[in-house]
Design a protein that fits this description.
The protein is α/β, with parallel strands linked by helices. It contains five helices and 32 strands. It has helices spanning 5-8, 17-23, 44-57, 97-117, 316-320; strands at residues 2-4, 31-33, 61-65, 73-79, 82-88, 129-130, 135-136, 141-142, 147-149, 153-154, 159-160, 165-167, 170-171, 176-177, 181-183, 186-187, 192-193, 198-199, 204-205, 210-218, 221-222, 227-235, 237-239, 244-245, 250-252, 262-264, 269-270, 275-277, 280-282, 287-288, 293-294, 303-304. A hairpin with a 2-residue loop joins strand 4 (73-79) and strand 5 (82-88). The chain is elongated and about 105 Å long.
Length: 325
């Protein structure tokens, strides 16, 4: 409800408004707007428009009347003995699941169209969920069914593919993200993330990094130009520049009691199906053979083979079956 502070006096305001105005050192004004938290569609622009309407018509007060969602809410102006009704969905009160759904759709739609007006490319504005707190640069492409929340920041040239869920994340310029879940992370420039990658809180991804399908990063720092194409878990680790992490690699960070860190140097090659059991340090330019379970530190430039030697027993099947085969 919007009431005339000058004409009706401060006594007419709700009792909670008076001390709030006094504490905030708000001086006398033409109008005071009391906005309730269950009316989230009311904006400053809407209130200014209502105040101008009241001034033009010499209206003393404005009261809110209930209506259905299809009729929206009505503001009833009283002035000069006449009543004027103004319909607006802005005054919808959230009372149940139906009104909550209606209001949520309106809020997210408004954010999408505001970004479009700033040059963000959103082909289907009603099929994305972007918080008003998110910063998105001009030219960014956001495909349908994307959710970006919190204090995220998306820089120029970024393309965010469908079914990406992102929160409190910084994304550097010219990065492509496909169908991934990212929370509380920093991602550098010119990266390729996903599809189906998971980057968890506290992770920092350098420039030019490739994190492919079903790669999970947890509380780790990934250097520039690292490649981890698919099916790997990197937890509580530091990975140096230009390192290759093979398919099926697991950074075993938990011993059942504590989490431990793994430090991998620059230009390291980690073969497929490798287990790195923390705490562990792998030196620069080291080479880890595929299928190794590494439990001791590896020095710079070394080759590590930590697996059973292959054994071949010829004619084993026929001997096992007594010569029947």
């Amino acid at each position: 409800p919007l009431c005339s502070y000058a004409e009706r006096g401060i006594q007419s305001l709700p009792y909670c408004v008076v001390p709030c105005m006094r504490d905030a050192h708000i001086e006398a004004a033409d109008y005071v707007a009391v906005v309730y938290t269950d009316m989230p569609l009311i904006t400053a622009e809407y209130l200014y428009s209502a105040a101008n309407e009241m001034k033009m018509r010499g209206i003393k007060s404005m009261e809110l009347h209930k209506a259905s969602i299809t009729e929206y809410r009505e503001f009833c102006f009283e002035g000069g003995g006449a009543k004027h009704k103004v319909d607006s969905y802005n005054t919808t009160v959230v009372e149940d699941a139906k009104t909550l759904s209606f209001v949520t759709e309106k809020l997210y739609s408004a954010v999408s169209h505001k970004l479009i007006n700033k040059g963000v490319i959103i082909p289907f504005p009603n099929r994305v969920l972007i918080d008003d707190t998110v910063k998105v640069a001009e030219g960014v492409v956001i495909d349908p069914y994307v959710s970006i929340k919190g204090c995220s920041e998306i820089n120029p040239g970024v393309n965010i593919g469908s079914y990406t869920d992102m929160e409190d994340t910084f994304v550097g310029s010219d990065t492509v993200i496909m169908s991934s879940n990212i929370k509380g992370a920093v991602i550098g420039k010119n990266c390729a993330i996903g599809p189906f990658a998971v980057i968890r809180k506290g992770s920092k991804i350098g420039d030019g990094v490739r994190l492919g399908d079903f790669v999970e990063i947890k509380n780790s720092t990934i250097g520039d130009n690292v490649k981890c194409a698919h099916l790997a878990y990197i937890g509580d680790a530091e990975v140096g520049n230009a390192t290759n992490v093979g398919c099926g690699t697991v950074f075993a960070n938990y011993d059942g009691v504590k989490k431990h860190r793994t430090v991998v140097g620059s230009e390291v090659f980690i073969g497929c199906n490798t287990n790195l059991v923390a705490p562990l340090t792998i030196g620069d330019n080291a080479y880890i053979a595929a299928g190794s379970t590494v439990t001791r530190c590896v020095p710079d430039g070394a080759l590590c083979i930590a697996r059973e030697r292959q054994i071949i027993k010829e004619d084993w099947i026929s001997k096992k079956s007594g010569g029947d085969k």
